[in-house]
Amino acid sequence: MAFFKGFYVKCAGKQDTVAVIFGMAACGKDETAFIQIVTKGNSYCEKFSGKDFFVARHGFEMRVGKNLVNEKGMTLDIQSKGLKVAGEVKFGEFDKIKYDAMGPFKLLPFMECKHTVVSMQHQISGNISLNGVSYNFDGGIGYIEGDRGKSFPKKYFWSQVNQGDISVSASCAVIPYLGIRFRGTICFIHSKGQKFRLATYLGARVKEFGESKLVVCQGRGKKMYRLEIEALDGKVTNARSLLAPAGGKMSRIIHESVERKVSYKFTKGTQTVFNFTSNRAAFEYSEE
Predict the structure, then answer these.
(1) DSSP bridge pairs for 125
(2) Interatomic CA distance for residues 260 and 280, integer angstroms
(3) Which residue of 63, 140, 148, 232 pairs with 54 in a disulfide if CB–CB is 3.0 to 4.6 A?
(4) How far apart are alpha carbons 161 and 164 in whole angstroms?
(5) b or e along 202-220 (b: 16 or more beta carbons within 10 Å of the residue's beta carbon)?
């Protein structure tokens, strides 16, 4: 049996962004737990025995060795040759999506990867020391999502940003299922107390899907939602290497930026809900 499970915990302070990935991967009897950390300037991966991994069956909680994340916060403690990290970040109340991210797709067996969103945004505070560099998150914003399955899609686009009281999480991928392939998308938008969702299972249509741009529409006429996301900084200079699952093994290399210049525009019919550019957007594009 081959599978993986992991949570992506993003902490954006007033000055710096750090993303921490708690996870495990298994292929037959080979089980590996891991912590991956990515900053604007670097990325790190610390591997553990599968026995050092714990995830709660109910609620949100995951532990890898001495490292723990749950709804109250995150504690990190790794003292190895190449990575020394310690600290605690406290979380405020989670801003949750209305229902399961996969919608009816959650019931389908044999899906390559299933996605979840734990919190679109929440207040954070605390500090992390990473290889002698201190990161402060007082007054910052957090975001958490998760994935499980066998492999990441071979081709996908993903971006996430928090801008004031706006939070966006958007993904699109080529999804194999029972001998066919289709483009699937899930986009979540929380803006000034309103919650929007664009998804394949709700009739969303992918108009553009490339290395630097994603355009998704849903509905028609005055009720049509349109989300446009575009990376504006040309060739990426701060994308950092991360390990990703392939057949239950962490053997694939992907690249993520936790602070990239990206524009976001969302319209509802003729009304522009928001149109802004952030220099601190998380962004990934991968194509094997």
Answers:
(1) 90
(2) 5
(3) 63
(4) 10
(5) eebebeebeebbbbbbbbe
Conformation bin of residue 281: beta by default, left when phi > 0, alpha when psi is -120 to 50: beta
Extract the tokens encoding 182: 């289709």
Q: Is the whole model's pTM more than 0.90, yes or no? A: yes
Give the type of residue at 202.
L
Task: Judge whether 25 and 31 are in contact, CB under 8 Å.
Answer: yes
Nearest-angstrom CA–CA distance, 145 and 261: 21
The dihedral formed by the CA atoms of 52, 57, 60 and 64, expressed in degrees to the nearest 10:
0
Pairing status of strand 155-163 against strand 140-149 = unpaired
Residue 268 clears pLDDT 90, i.e. is over it: yes
C-alpha dihedral over 120, 124, 129, 130, to 10 degrees? 10
Measured between its terminal Cα atoms, the distance across the chain in Å is 24
Instruction: Decide: 2 and 28 in contact? Cβ < 8 Å.
Output: yes
- The alpha-helical segments, DSSP class H, found in the chain are none
d(CA 118, CA 115) in angstroms, rounded, equals 10
The torsion of the CA quartet 17, 251, 245, 45, rounded to 10 degrees, works out to: -30
Answer yes or no: are the C-beta atoms of 4 and 245 closer than 8 Å. yes
DSSP 269: T
- In angstroms, the CA 83 to CA 89 distance is 18
Cβ(162)–Cβ(188) under 8 Å? no
Residue 208: in which H helix or E strand, if any?
strand 205-209
Please give the average per-residue pLDDT across 138-147, as a whole number.
Answer: 98
Cβ proximity of 131 and 229 under 8 Å: no
